[in-house]
Specification:
Elements (H helix, E strand, L loop, with lengths): L6 H8 L3 H13 L7 H16 L1
């Protein structure tokens, strides 16, 4: 999702409304992750990749 380049493209790929993606990203920010920080985005992306392959 983070590699999709935006909420609209991510929503299309996930088959959900763009507001769903936006709301979930806001929830991620609320728990303390700075999605504007490239290192944080990379860590989350790698974690998702590992979890989804398991």
């Amino acid at each position: 999702m983070l590699s999709e380049g935006g909420a609209v493209r991510a929503a299309e790929r996930l088959g959900v409304h763009r507001n769903t993606v936006t709301a979930r990203l806001e929830r991620i920010k609320e728990v303390g992750y700075d999605l504007d920080d490239p290192a944080t985005r990379l860590a989350l992306h790698l974690a998702w990749h590992v979890i989804s392959k398991g």
